[in-house]
Amino acid sequence: MIELDPSLKTPLYEQLYAALADEIRRGDRAPGTPLPGRRTMAAQQGVSVNTVDTAYQMLAAEGLAEPRPRSGFYVQKTYGMLHTRTPRPAPQPAVPAALAEAPVPLFDLSTGSVDTALFPARSWGRIQKELLYQRPELLQRGEMQGDADLRGEIAQYLSEYRGVECTPGQIVVGAGIEYLLGCVAHLFGGNTVAIENPGYSRTRAVLGNSGIACTLVDIDRDGLSVAALEASGASLCYLTPSHHFPTGVTMPATRRAQLLAWAAEQPGRYILEDDYDSEFRFDTRPLPCLQGMAGADGPVVYLTTFSKSLAPGIRIACMVLPQSLLARYRRDFAAYANTVSRFEQQTLCEFMAGGYFTRHLARMRLAYKRRMETFAAALRAALPGVELDGVHSGLHFLLTLPRAESETAMVQTAASHGVRLRGLSEYYMTRPELCRPNTVVAGYSALKEDDIPAVAAALAAAWCAFL
Amino acid sequence: MIELDPSLKTPLYEQLYAALADEIRRGDRAPGTPLPGRRTMAAQQGVSVNTVDTAYQMLAAEGLAEPRPRSGFYVQKTYGMLHTRTPRPAPQPAVPAALAEAPVPLFDLSTGSVDTALFPARSWGRIQKELLYQRPELLQRGEMQGDADLRGEIAQYLSEYRGVECTPGQIVVGAGIEYLLGCVAHLFGGNTVAIENPGYSRTRAVLGNSGIACTLVDIDRDGLSVAALEASGASLCYLTPSHHFPTGVTMPATRRAQLLAWAAEQPGRYILEDDYDSEFRFDTRPLPCLQGMAGADGPVVYLTTFSKSLAPGIRIACMVLPQSLLARYRRDFAAYANTVSRFEQQTLCEFMAGGYFTRHLARMRLAYKRRMETFAAALRAALPGVELDGVHSGLHFLLTLPRAESETAMVQTAASHGVRLRGLSEYYMTRPELCRPNTVVAGYSALKEDDIPAVAAALAAAWCAFL
Question: Does domain A12-98 have CATH number 1.10.10.10?
């Protein structure tokens, strides 16, 4: 029994963390053994599950414990390796999957991964190598907004493929949407932003951290509701109009026009348009973005990322600032170095200039389309009565089983059959009662084509009671 | 004559920018021709020099004009290339230096560059290539604080070489000090930070942008004065104790102890220690950092960068958070992806684990020490009466000519003889009258050894009246 003292200034989760860390360091808890379940520990110690969870997360981040999906936390097996100052031992061989105690998901249908087999490693690597040997000036600091030639390539691409209206001078390259959203937030200090519900909780975290008040606005069948936006009193609006995350709704033209009218109605109103995965639309050519409808001087900040089109591990995103924000941005960020390595900026620049990027996108679109069709067909065959929504764009769709017991039951039985996916209600930051019942989000970007029959079979077995 | 209308809501600099941009786009101002000098334009238009400068900077960022050092702004020669949607023309050959109209500095003594010839391109490139082909999992998203094995290597390095006391779990890897300072600022919202004067104006910009009130505190011969810090009322203190930027002062042990006592006196007081270039100390082993004196749980956030030890174009920096800030940091930034590409994280990790990094540092230290000694000797020979300060550490020193007319005269005559350097007073954010007179900051990190006699000769010619 660990003794916690609520009268101390140190929070309970830190006390619990410190006590467990001591036990692990002393060897009182053997490497590889499980920590008590969160609810058990919470009941034992008379604290909330959240307190236990925070303490466990701290142990994990410290390298003292290891989370195992659907199974809880275990004392780190390799503990000791990182904490010694003696010469580093040889890397430990990975634990073979068959020996691991906990059921590890075999198939991952979460969003946010990519199929690494589609990455153009050969051409990317060749360009990268040439730049390293031939352009030593790239070791020096570059331009604050990103290298001018890369911004030129991006401007041309966004204009041709996404209907963005901008000059290279309006583009800011950065190491991820979170970083760029943080910069945008600075420009809007004191404002309130409306965020789609359901939607990206990440956006709320970033804008909230940066001092912007966030208010959640429900979506309807056409996406963010302009009436609800008006009622929210917000002067900023963050949205994903091309392919709403996670429902997949594409905002129709009339709703877009209403949104732009809302923004034009009062000075200081702005739309933050996140065009995160619009490269992947399989039925028709993607709709042009809101930024293009509004024009280069319109009240729209356009954001997009290369995480889907290249890889999430290569941290390149960009935004297009309207002229009205540009001078202030440049003044306030003049002292900042760009956050993307110049070698990666220039590798992307050459990759785009040489035509590799658009060919790579065309290849990926084809591969993902085929995978989506195969996967959807396999699911429809294996799961009689299943409803699939939002299949024509993006890299995930919604899967509804009308006769399921509950969304939670769907997620849990799938996990116990080796398939990891999230329920739609998990994306609701408020009012989860509005969520369509018995619906999960199925991402297929990291799913191997050969695995599709096995995934469909696993889900059919998991959900046999719901069919 | 351009017509500006002060009664409009559009700021004057934007009006001026827009009018000039139109003229350039219409071809009324021929590519390659100079724009009027800033003072001339300001007088013509009846606006401030600052207004003109902002408009010119906007044109430059737009790619419409091009700044040339010590010469002003010119209409962009290659304008048009970036603004067409027709296929991209072949890249324009660079303008040979002999044809350029303006005197371009031949020798750059500014700080912040590195000698690209010292970069270990071969081993770096080999590791990078292996990772790209052999570890496709690096394409996926990594850990929020940075990859655990890289953090392990950094913790070990900082412990052995800088006396930092921390576990890998306390380390946060990020794409540059500015990004990391922005994260730190979030943790200290509502506080006031004391910043060294003279010092890094960048720090003031970043912390100010992030909502932290900044107050400037004068340094004395031992660095930041604790009495002045007390008097400032600040609860945070940003400083460069190992090698004050730009004066080169190393803070002695007693002053360090006083600073830690200041921090310990009240809860919520923290020191932000920027150890930006302490790898380069030539006389004695570097002093251990403040963070190590305070211990892993002490009130110090330690920041350092790989910009000097590797290259500024590769964006890797890191910070060490004390336990007291870690839980809050992890909670508030849980949704953020790390800002450094995983390939570059892992290249650095292998580079450190394989022993390349410490060997590379030893080689650089030797090369820079030799360069410093050669340069200092050449300057002492060429400039009778010159005083050099802060030669024993870092990659720059102070150069004083007691009999010079003024600092400005030193900077301008050097520039007209092809040597770019900055005056010490330029680093004073307030009270420049405290600045030691007739002193410039001479960085030698990007100076080729073969160029040293020519630089010394150019400065002797530039400053002959001051000797």
Answer: yes
